[in-house]
Amino acid sequence: MARKLKLTTIGNSVGVVLPREILERLRVDRGDELMVLETPDGIRLTPFSPEFASQMDVAENIMRKRRNLLKKLAE
User: Fold this and answer.
1) How far apart are CA 26 and CA 43, in angstroms?
2) Sign of dihedral through CA atoms 20, 21, 22, 27?
3) Strands 34-39 and 42-47
4) SS3 call for 68
5) Helix and strand tally (H, E) in the chain?
6) Is the pTM of this model over 0.70?
7) Disulfide engineering: 32 pairs with which of 13, 28, 41, 65, CB 3.0-4.6 Å?
8) 20-35, pLDDT tens digit by residue?
9) Closest CA to 33 of 46, 43, 20, 22
10) Are the C-beta atoms of 10 and 18 separated by less than 8 Å?
């Protein structure tokens, strides 16, 4: 599904209004939180998952601490 969305000013920030159909597909509503993930294909929006966010924090800490080891493994 490709859809053109317009950016709008919200206070001192910029936001995008998601159409009802997209909110239904994401199973979210006003006040819910979304996660924004950067992927090789672009940006991905998903419903916020505290469990997944915690797992990502752990993974990022490991990647930061073990950066040199991970570089060697990637060679």
Assistant:
1) 15
2) positive
3) antiparallel
4) helix
5) 3, 4
6) no
7) 28
8) 999 999 999 998 999 8
9) 46
10) no
